[in-house]
Design goal:
The structure is a single chain. The chain has one domain: lambda repressor-like DNA-binding domains (434 Repressor (Amino-terminal Domain), Orthogonal Bundle), CATH 1.10.260.40. The chain has 64 residues and is mostly helical. The longest helix is centred in the C-terminal third of the chain and has 11 residues. Helix 2 crosses helix 3 and helix 2 packs across helix 4.
Amino acid sequence: MVTQLRLHRLFSGLKAIEVARRAGISPTLLSRVERGQVRPSLRVRRRLSRVLRVPEQTLFGDFP
């Protein structure tokens, strides 16, 4: 399954390590979020949406 987060990252042309660096998270955490293995905290969701310039709801759907 390809998540919206991964699709938007790929569409933006950014490598995962660059998105992680800009969001202030580890590349490992980003990878786990992209694969749907963990649910990101609200803070991480906001950071990722800012880096990718996409609304949180678009990236994460109905995550609580």
